[in-house]
Design a protein that fits this description.
The protein is α/β, with parallel strands linked by helices and 356 residues long. The chain is built from 8 helices and 17 strands.
Amino acid sequence: MSKVIVGMSGGVDSSVAAYLLKKQGHDVVGVTMQIWQTEDLCQIEEEGGCCGLSAVEDARKVASVLDIPYYVMNFRKEFQTQVIDYFVNEYLQGRTPNPCIACNRYVKWESMLERSLKIGGDFIATGHYGQIEKLENGRYSLRRSSTLAKDQTYALYNLTQEQLAKTLMPCGAYTKDEIREIAKKINLPIADKPDSQDICFVPDGDYAAFIEKETTEVIRPGNFVLSDGEIIGQHKGIVHYTVGQRKGLGLAMGEPVFVLEICPNRNEVVIGTHEETLTTTLRANQLNFMSISDLLEPQRVFTKIRYNHQGAWCRIEKTDADEVLCTFEEPQRAVTPGQAVVFYKDDFVVGGGTIL
């Protein structure tokens, strides 16, 4: 019987994950990561946040129902360094970060796994929708969830082989509706709790205000420009914008316009037409390969360039030790520096990287 440390967010998925593992005969221990707990309790209850004070209360109730030990682990320092600081610095550099991916890799897995092994855990487990499989080549990879509408492998592409070998994801074989039905059947108090939305540490969605509060840098207005350099207006500060954005620009151009590029060195935001947002190539670095150890020759892969991207076929090839060139078969809209690009083959994660 394995001892499994389950990361419990107080939500339906992780709660049912703990139940399923206990049902399978594992020695289950529930843990909530204390990472961001300065919020007002009532606000977090209302927002449905995944890592606030209410998450602890909900997870504790579930652990009581399931009759499993429950603890709170403090990861505030790791979360500040690996997630908050990264998030702020990326926006200041004109990029659009994905803090959930950073949190998964460095907090939920690296830090939690290390601490769990120290207290005698054999595995860690989460409520993510994905399936871990060991391939014929001996490597571990993530297979897309049985319900693609809820598949979360995109946000987990940079887990290491060591982390995958020590991880269980029991929810990956179920649909979200099935998971909720299980929660109701066993009378979990969170069976009807809504899914957490957006970034947990910015519950009101005002990223720019959060960044201004977290940094000593002054966010200065600058120029909106066209691709030829013509000035067409003033922006509020580059942290208010992301590539592909159309709403909230405050520009009367007579036709829809979009953010094409953010230039922090000139404090400019480049604006253009829908056609100008399209491209057939991108480059990425900070690579992590999963189903293969390295990209030794070009491959045709199915690729996602953002979490809610439907995916598209492209050819990937190494151009440097830590850089890959992706050439799409059809033009893609709003390729965004800082976001993850993730490659799939036969529903398995080949690997991914950070868009340059």
